[in-house]
Write a structure and sequence with these properties.
By secondary structure, the chain is of the alpha+beta class. It has one domain. Helix content is 49%, strand content 13%. It has three helices and three strands, in the order βββααα. A three-stranded antiparallel beta sheet has the order 1-2-3, covered by helices on one side. A hairpin with a 4-residue loop joins strand 2 and strand 3. The mean pLDDT is 94.
Length: 79
């Protein structure tokens, strides 16, 4: 899944959609995942990167990634 190109993400987890003027806040892990998405990482690359950085099971990351992607889609932040 790809984020819209104009979505701005700060290091503190603040997201801004200039098309709608809406803003959102993300927790630190979601912020990290969003930055990976902006960089063009595949879901598999994101999962592996998070597993290498944190002591968490793959199934947990997969679920969290799916939930985040669903939320981004609902807020129309993806293309």
């Amino acid at each position: 899944m790809k984020l819209k190109k104009d979505i701005a993400i700060s290091d503190s987890g603040f997201l801004f959609n200039p098309s709608s003027g809406d803003s959102y806040t993300a927790n630190p892990i979601a912020t990290e995942i969003l930055k990976y998405m902006q960089s063009g990482f595949s879901n598999e690359q994101i999962i592996v990167s998070i597993m290498e950085s944190y002591d968490v099971e793959r199934s947990t990351i997969e679920k969290d990634l799916f939930d985040l992607e669903s939320m981004l889609s609902n807020y129309k932040l993806t293309r």
